[in-house]
C-alpha cells in the first residue's frame, strides 16, 4: 500500500510535536550551541597544553582521552591575536626504528584586554560557523577553543605552506594566470558566504589567506 502524506499537515505535525517538547530530527542547533560544543577542557603544564575528553569506546564505555600539545613557535598574526604552532606526538619511535607520528595544529591567542565580550564571542561564532562541513573547502577548520581569565585560545587547522603572502615571497615571481584566477574565485566565493552568513572580514590580506596546493582557505 502506498501512503501519500499531505505536506502542510506533516509540517504542522512536526511543529506541534516540538512545541510539546518531543525531539525532532529536523531541529537545528543554534550557533551558540555549536560554539559551546567546541569548548575544550584544558590545563597548562609548560610547554604543554593538556586536554582531557571522555570518548565512547567500542564496548559502550566512556573512557578519558588525554592529549598533550607541545608549543613549538609563533607562526603569524591573525585578527585580534597571535598564532602559534603546536605538536601532538601520537606514537613514539619504536624499538624497531619506526619513526614517531605527529599531528599539528595552529592555536590563535586572543587577549581579552581591551575587547568587549561581544567582540571575542563574535570571533568565536565566526570561526565555529565556518568550520561546518559545508564550508570546509573555503575556510580554516576549528578543532575547538578554551580560555583563561584574560585570553581565549582557538585551535585550528595548520597549513605547512603558510599564508599566501609567504608563498608569493618564496615564489619570487607572479603566479600563473590560471592559479591566480582560481585563487580569486575562491576568495570571492568565501566573501560571498561570509556576507550571506552575516559576517564581514575587515582584515583581508594575503597574511590571513592560507595556501595549499589545492587552493586557499580563509582564516577568520
TrEMBL record:
Subcellular location field: Preautophagosomal structure membrane
GO cellular component: phagophore assembly site membrane
Gene3D superfamilies assigned: Transferase(Phosphotransferase) domain 1 (1.10.510.10)
Domain Protein kinase: 69-220
A Gene Ontology molecular function term of the record: protein serine/threonine kinase activity
GO biological process: regulation of autophagy
InterPro entries assigned: Atg1-like, Kinase-like_dom_sf, Prot_kinase_dom
Family annotation (Pfam families): Pkinase
Topology class, membrane: Peripheral membrane protein
Protein name, UniProt field: Autophagy-related protein 1
Organism, scientific name: Penicillium italicum (Blue mold)
Lineage: Eukaryota, Fungi, Dikarya, Ascomycota, Pezizomycotina
Amino acid at each position: 500500500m502506498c501512503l501519500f502524506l499531505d505536506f502542510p499537515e506533516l509540517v504542522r505535525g512536526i511543529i506541534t510535536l516540538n512545541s510539546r517538547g518531543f525531539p525532532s530530527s529536523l531541529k537545528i542547533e543554534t550557533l551558540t550551541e555549536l560554539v559551546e560544543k567546541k569548548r575544550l577542557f584544558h590545563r597548562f603544564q609548560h610547554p604543554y597544553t593538556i586536554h582531557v575528553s571522555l570518548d565512547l569506546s567500542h564496548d559502550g564505555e566512556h573512557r578519558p582521552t588525554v592529549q598533550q600539545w607541545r608549543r613549538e613557535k609563533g607562526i603569524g598574526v591573525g585578527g585580534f591575536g597571535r598564532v602559534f604552532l603546536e605538536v601532538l606526538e601520537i606514537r613514539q619511535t619504536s624499538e624497531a626504528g619506526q619513526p614517531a607520528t605527529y599531528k599539528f595544529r595552529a592555536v590563535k591567542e586572543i587577549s581579552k584586554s581591551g575587547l568587549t565580550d561581544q567582540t571575542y564571542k563574535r570571533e568565536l561564532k565566526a570561526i565555529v560557523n565556518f568550520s561546518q562541513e559545508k564550508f570546509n573547502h573555503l575556510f580554516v577548520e576549528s578543532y575547538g577553543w578554551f580560555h583563561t581569565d584574560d585570553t581565549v585560545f582557538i585551535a585550528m587547522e595548520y597549513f605547512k605552506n603558510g599564508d599566501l603572502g609567504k608563498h608569493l615571497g618564496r615564489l619570487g615571481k607572479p603566479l600563473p594566470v590560471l592559479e591566480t584566477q582560481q585563487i580569486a574565485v575562491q576568495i570571492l566565493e568565501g566573501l560571498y558566504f561570509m556576507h550571506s552568513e552575516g559576517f564581514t572580514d575587515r582584515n583581508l590580506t594575503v597574511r590571513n589567506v592560507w595556501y595549499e596546493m589545492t587552493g586557499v582557505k580563509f582564516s577568520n
